[in-house]
Amino acid sequence: MKLVVQRVKYASVKVDNKVVGKIDQGFMVLVGITDTDTKDTCDQLADKLIKLRVFDDENGVMNNDIKSVNGKLLIISQFTLYADLTKGNRPSYFKAAKGEISKPLYEYFCDKCQSLGIDVERGIFGADMKVELLNDGPVTILMEK
Q1: CB neighbour list of residue 84: distance below 8 Å, 6 or more residues apart
Q2: Mean pLDDT throughout 124-137?
Q3: What is the CATH classification number for the domain harbouring 8?
Q4: 80 assigned to active site
């Protein structure tokens, strides 16, 4: 599983020109899932994400987690995180899990984050989505398990 975590001032996702998920301060998270991922993988990364300390404290030091700033999550499935370019310029996605594996794990990951006390907004799995965000910092963290 791969996560691209961006600290944002705001983020939203549209499908068919309709906003389906929107947050103010928090993380916009792109989630890529591969065949070897499990619920345990989701649990470990969800816990790590919620404890990630990249929000400024009163001294301007990145020392606070998302709960400390009442932040929210916008979580979007992103199979292209598993793009393989070893054989040319056209990406292969054979390392990305198929929908029957990745969709339930994506939903589980979102639910797990919610169960850890964070408000979660979502994209729509498999849809053509348009994402808008204001990256704060910019702070972008790659997480992988």
Answers
A1: 91, 92, 93, 94, 95
A2: 97
A3: 3.50.80.10
A4: yes
